[in-house]
Amino acid sequence: MIIMNNKFSVKDYYCVYNDFDTSKRIKELHNLYLPLLGNDAISLYTFFGSKMLSDKNLSKSYLHYDILDNLGLSDNKFLIARKKLEALGLIQSLYFDNNGIGQFIYKIKEALSFEEFFNTPVLAKLLENTLGSNNYSDLVNYYSLDKVSFKSFEDISAKFSDVFRLENLNDFSFDYITSKSVNGPNFDEYFFDFDKLNFYLANSYLTDVISNPEVKNKILGLAHIYKMSPEDMSSAIEKSVEISNGASEININVLSDYIAQLNVNVRKQEVPTLDRMINKNLVGKKEEQLTEDEKFAKEVDNTNFVEYLNKQVGIVLSKIDAKNIEELQSKYNFPTGVLNILLEYSIKQSGKNSIPHINYIDKIASTWSAQKLFGAKDAIDFVRANRNQKTKAFSTNKSPQKSYSNNRKSNHAPFPEYLQNRQNSFNQSKKEEDRVVTKEDEDTFKDLMKVLYNKGDV
To answer: Which residues contact 62 (CB under 8 A, 6 or more apart)?
Structure first.
């Protein structure tokens, strides 16, 4: 059995691959998939579909914080929503571990059309169970393309080879006819034993009726939601076989209805819906509570450097300084949270309450760039580790005193004092201003914010 992959960290990067316009299937998403998957999953799908793409149909890279903050999802809610989309074949998740740095590619797959959805028994039956028979019938009658029945007619359309003569068929490729990819639920074929089903059907000479891959996939879907054994499925197939144009074939609608009646009336089981079928290990996972450090770091990650320095350090940047910092961030590709901690650390190290010269900051940044810092939390831990190392070095070089207190060892340095003060007062009005902010400063700050928001987050 395949084990569900739960690789995911909010500090992992992701990008989106999309080669079609998701807005063309917005009615299908809202009428067919929303009742089955819920709002979180559909919001995630449309959020992925809204990403700006390059000429290679690939978006730029983002941290997963981008998803959680924009959609208001917790880690676990995001994971459930993503896996629901994967299970119903709406996205494909690809993962690559680049020296400890996780990189996801979310490949968006097109939603089924109304006709394709209604002709996929497992989805049609799940939707009917969720909406109720009357509402489902209204939906089918309104959106179905099958307004007339051609069942009694024989298809006498000519084949390509009947009309056109080809000298050498090997020179031509017809792979596209059979290689068309079919969207739909991402079923596990190991779940159902088709070899046993063939064995039971052989007694009735019906093995050919499941030779069609499309029919086989529909049977697999029904086996999933109704937990059918091969023996039970063979009995159901025997009761749903019809003769058409001299050949036996399965009437999928009859098969689906028969299995549904067997499940509810004979087995007395609950009507299956996706909410009832969801993996208990997935939804039973407890939400992880953020520590105060993590809450503080998350806020820092989502505050641009102009606003952060103004509100938390009391500094109004000049346009020259802001431009230099933008170039510094571009040079080292620091995330927003790392940049904020770097700037505050540089100010503290300089011993002044103003922005140091850019060369001073650059020297510190070059050291930080060698570290794997993905957010404010990583930057804070890096500062803490450095202080811890310096404290130990100082303690080692210091001459020992005859005091029992010197025998006590510290396992780690405390949270940096200046960051602790920031954390305690974060998002609160400063009681004392480190400097007087003039009217000119406020105007300059407003101009900077306009420029920043016009360009997007740097």
So the answer is: 13, 14, 15
Same domain as 450, residue 353: yes
Same-domain check for residues 322 and 447: yes
Tell whether 380 and 415 lie within a shared domain.
yes
Rounded CA separation 212/190 (Å): 18
**Do the beta carbons of residue 248 and residue 209 sit within 8 Å?**
yes
Question: How far is Cα of residue 155 from the mean position of the Cα atoms in its chain?
Answer: 44
CA 398 to chain centroid: 53
pTM of structure: 0.56
Tell me, yes or no, whether 88 and 129 share the same domain: no
**244/42 Cα distance (integer angstroms):** 40
pLDDT tens digits, residue range 361-370? 999 999 898 8
Q: Give mean pLDDT, residues 126-130.
A: 90
Same domain, 329 and 313: yes
Question: Are 266 and 180 contained in the same domain?
Answer: yes
- Cα distances from 211 to residues 44, 50, 193, in angstroms, run 37, 40, 14
Burial string for 145-174 (b: 16+ CB within 10 Å, else e) reads: eeeeeeeeeeeeeeeeeeeeeeeeeeeeee
Q: How many domains does the chain have?
A: 3
**Residue 433 confidence class, pLDDT cut points 50, 70, 90:** very low
Measure the CA–CA gap between 449 and 458, rounded to whole angstroms: 12
75-110: pLDDT as tens digits: 889 999 999 999 899 999 999 887 777 889 999 999
Q: DSSP H helical segments within 262-407, as ranges?
A: 274-277, 280-283, 292-301, 305-308, 319-332, 336-350, 358-368, 376-397
Q: How far is CA 264 from CA 239, 240, 275, in A?
A: 18, 18, 17
Is pLDDT at 329 greater than 80 in this prediction? yes
Range of the domain at 330: 292-397+410-455
**By CB neighbour count within 10 A (0-12 exposed, 13-18 middle, 19+ buried), where does 192 fall?**
buried
- Report d(CA 202, CA 214) in Å as an integer: 20
Q: Which residue has the tokens 């780690």?
A: 412
Residue 399 φ/ψ region, left for φ over 0, alpha for ψ in the -120 to 50 degree band, beta for the rest = beta
Domain end call among 280, 310, 337: 280
